[in-house]
Design brief:
Blueprint (H helix, E strand, L loop, with lengths): L22 E3 L10 E4 L3 E5 L6 E5 L9 E3 L14 H4 L1 H12 L4 E5 L8 E3 L6 H9 L14
Antiparallel strand pairs: 1-5, 2-3, 3-4, 4-5, 6-7
Bound molecules: zinc ion (ZN) (2 copies).
The site of one zinc ion (ZN) has 6 residues, from loops.
Length: about 150
């Protein structure tokens, strides 16, 4: 069986969506026109109509309400349940914390949470994972990961 192949050189031109950053706020309506593959309460799996790439549309911050578009982790994810939210939204969470705390730097002191061996961040009494858990929810923090694996 033959697969139809685009005759033009469109296959060598990367799709415009590939220039999108790992996460971005969605301010243009074009993304809202993309087909929705799967719908959940606070997130949608959408597909770029031009190249078929999957994207996670999410509302991670109930307080601020805006939709963000993220490149899913792992990139092979084709269902919402396959997406690792903590990894996918990591860059977003870090950027948001940075807006509040300035550059994210670890101090010598340990996190104030009992039993947490991670270092607290400059400007905070808590470590990065507890800050993420507190602000965005435990599902976005990597609290189970060992503290000294990096
Ligand atoms: Zn695309
Ligand atoms: Zn901690």
């Amino acid at each position: 069986m033959r697969t139809p192949v685009d005759s033009g050189n469109s296959t060598t031109t990367p799709c415009a969506c590939s220039k999108r950053p790992t996460w971005s706020r969605v301010e243009d309506d074009s993304v809202m026109q993309w087909p929705v593959i799967e719908l959940a309460e606070w997130e949608e799996l959408r597909q770029c109509p031009d190249c078929g790439r999957h994207w996670l549309a999410s509302w991670p911050d109930e307080l601020e309400g805006g939709m963000i578009l993220c490149s899913p982790e792992p990139a092979s994810a084709r269902r919402l349940r396959d997406i690792d939210r903590a990894s996918t939204l990591r860059a977003y969470c870090l950027a948001r914390l940075e807006e509040h705390l300035g550059p994210l730097k670890e101090r010598k002191l340990e996190c104030r949470k009992v039993g947490c061996a991670r270092k607290r961040l400059d400007g905070s009494s808590y470590c990065i994972e507890h800050l993420i858990a507190d602000r965005f929810g435990r599902h976005l923090a990597k609290l189970d990961a060992p503290a000294r694996d990096r």
